[in-house]
Here is the input.
Amino acid sequence: MMFKNIFFIIVSLVISATLIAQPNAINHEGELGISIGSSHYFGDMNKGRVNRPKPAFGLFYRKQFGSYVALRAHAHISQLGYADKYNTTPFERQRNLSFFTDLQEFTVQGDFNFFKYLPGSTDYRFTPYVTLGVGFFHFDPEATLPGLPNPWDIKERRLEGQLQEYPNNAISFPIGMGVKYNFYRNLNIGFEVGYRFTNTDYIDDVSTRYAGPNAFTNTFDFLLQDRSLTLPMLGVQGKQRGFSAQKDRYVFAELTFSYSFNSYKCPVVQ
Here is the structure.
């Protein structure tokens, strides 16, 4: 009986030590995942209202450095767009401008976990995190005219009298917060809101002042630069059209789904 009791004690100690050591046996290498959600524009046509979000999709790889810090490469495709008809001020409604664009973005971001995160363990399956980084993106704004079905590429038309076209590649500076949860083995789910500051004021093709009717020989270009709803029209040379002192921004709000890559080492008994 004594040997039997000793045997059970030894087995219990070994099992307990193994369970305690399990987190030490897992090495979280990284994650490959997708993001699905919405994107939203803020700029000369929308100062801060959350209205008319567009779809956004992403693919990312997160390289883990320990349990708290990771470096992420994230590629997005999305849409942005807005219209003055959603605004409330008389000037903006009279201005009646609108745009839409496809957007492609690639960023490199540092992710910093609040808690230890170790997929596959039972104790470290959830954490909030913050993220920040730098990226670049491509955009190409378009607009429509009443009665004409096809959209117009408004960048190449220099609607504010530019001497040359503005670049449609720009730099973004993402900053955001999120949460993630390891819900089953190597599978993770999360939610992230990421705000993008940019170095361009032309995502919406609106920035400075009206060029005036004499700047255009093409009737359609003249109609695109001044889409005022009623007379008198706003498009007098030098009259304010946008607000160039503040760059355009956009935001992503997304669910994330990822698969963790783990390696294993011999557990250290504590």
About this structure: Strands lie at 26-42, 54-65, 69-83, 98-113, 126-139, 142-143, 152-153, 169-184, 187-198, 249-264. Residues 146 and 186 are 52 Å apart (CA to CA).
